[in-house]
Amino acid sequence: MSLANLPQHSSSSSCKSSLDEEFDDDTEVDTDRSRKRCKEEDLGSIEQTQGSGSQVLVEENSKSSRKKDICAHPGSFEHMCIVCGQPVDDKFGVVFGYIHKGLRLQNYEVDRLRKIDLKRAMRHKKLYLVLDLDHTLLNSTKLDRMTAEEEYLKSQTADSLQDVSKGSLFKVDIVDRMIKLRPFVRTFLKETSEMFEMYIYTMGTRVYALEMAKLLDPRKEYFSDRVISCEDAIKRHQKGLDIVLGQENAVLILDDKEDAWTKHNSNLILIEKYHFFRSSSDKGGFKCKSLSELKSDESETEGALAAALDVLKQIHTTFFHELEDNQRDVRKGCKRVFSYVFPSKFQADAGSLEQASSDSIHSAVKLQTICCGKAT
Fold first, then answer.
1. Any idea which fold 125-369 has?
2. Which stretches make up the FCP1 homology domain (predicted)?
3. What's the pLDDT tens digit per position in 193-217?
4. Which of 188, 267, 291, 376 has the lowest tally of Cβ within 10 angstroms?
5. What secondary structure does DSSP assign to 73-112, as a single string?
């Protein structure tokens, strides 16, 4: 039975309510209600037509019904089943702590919710997009690791975090970091939100992830509560789509690290790293100055995010307007992995572009048009 339709224990009502809002399926609800009404009417009919002499038959039917309706415990919340409220072993299923602390869902329930949400997403012509934070949407550095040439930035941060929508440089005391949002990021998020249900997925801590989400999405228009941190990951230092409630054939990933998603490379769009600050690893002899030290930045219109947005638009168009239903798969039918956003000084020759194209199954990307990271 579905999570949305079964009676459940009152102590887990807030958890169930949230899931119902996220994955409500009117057709499924109506069908289950109709079945319950039919069952009740059938039992009532037996009692009326056969009288007390059929009491045994009614009891047998009731016992059989109860056996069939034994709760399968599709998920648990704080060691209790989210449907019946009975104590359960919390070693089963997958942890979805970013949705509700202490929430676990059985694999079959995760699959059911994904199917429901995919139908809703398809109706609205939306795919799923999982976004990394560091070096993808922003760059950050510890305040005590800033170089002497970067100190000037401390006087240029936003005076207040009350309205972050207009700023791009912030000093966030709660995480003791200076944050620089990547150029074009606000336009990127606004336009991608029209085509995708978006997640943040970072190997940073939950506190850090939520603070960055506030800077990127102060009104919670884009990510809602879909913010995943290292504390939610199933495998340490490894990202996976196991805890993303989207079908893999409709999920794209934008990240600067290929090895972070070894199981899902066919879903991955790899973007050039954004190095605004001098990283701690650069201080051991790397002579190239950071963008902040050069008092420069990526281009808004020709930078990595602008190029990635063009690619995402092409994939979305191909998926919904150029493929039959049975071909719709971002990993195959409409996309050979957009493997690399070329570094700013990379000069691609005709041979390398030809080789990239020859690897395509059905490329939605014309690599010749991609040139990212140009500084202004």
1. Rossmann fold (3.40.50)
2. 122-297
3. 999 999 999 999 999 999 999 999 9
4. 376
5. --EEETTEETTT--B--TTSSEE-TTTSTTEEE-HHHHHH
